[in-house]
Amino acid sequence: MNHMPQTWGRPRDDYYGPYDSSYLLLNGPKAHTSSPVVTGTSVLAVKFKDGVVIAADNLASYGSLARFTDVKRLRTFNRRTVVGFGGDVSDMQYLDRLLLSLDIDENYNSSGHDLNARNVHTYLSKVMYKRRTDINPLWNHILVAGLDGNDRPFLSSVDLLGTTFSSPTLATGFGAHLAQPLLRKLADRESAVEAVTREQAVTAIKECMKVLFYRDARSLDRYSIAVITKEAGVELKEDEQLEKQSWAFAEMIKGYGTQTV
To answer: What is the pLDDT of residues 146-188, one digit of tens each?
Structure first.
């Protein structure tokens, strides 16, 4: 009798003949993800004079179903960097493991230098571009927020093609259409960042999260928000609730509720 674990549950070869593994399609074409299944929506971020604010809601949608309501899409990397993930949740978990491995290697490094937000962004951009060139992309749009090597606010993005972009305000998903115009009123160029306070940046992000909850069917009213500064490092809150919601505007939408003409 064969007691090897890989044979458990299989019919015995001496009674039923050799096991037919053709159904496993071991010789078939190699397939990659062509469309994400469980996804997260927008990630928002804005610079202010002393740091960066970044936020993302806690929802992971299974197609159009609001399936998982406690998925944290902001990941801290040391005390100077936060990575926000939009897109496929399984690819986010894979990247999270890569970053954890990188962090462990850095902690064992005796050079005395740690990676800043710019270094983390460069690393992720190379990973994303490599997977793109393998025709097996990671289906994510990522924001990296934190402090650079000179302790200046840093904010940049990278998408599934490995394309990078930096700006005082950034957003992924529906936020690129609905939140960016609001955030740009606060800081539309790098020179305007010096006039933005922490309170203004946090208030603007919270208002944008509220707008997205109103307008984006894949969003949630519970979210995570992080503030990165030189003095305090990363201040992360992972279970915030939207406040002062008002649906009065819905009465003006044609087709909503009882209409009188």
So the answer is: 999 999 999 999 999 999 999 999 999 999 999 999 999 999 9
156 token code pair = 């940049």
Q: What is the pTM of this model?
A: 0.83
Which of 49, 84, 252 shows the shortest CA–CA distance to 175? 84
Question: CB under 8 Å to 139, separation ≥6 — which residues?
Answer: 33, 35, 36, 39, 87, 88, 91, 160
d(CA 163, CA 160): 7
* Active-site position among 33, 69, 133, 197: 33
Q: Is 33 a catalytic residue?
A: yes
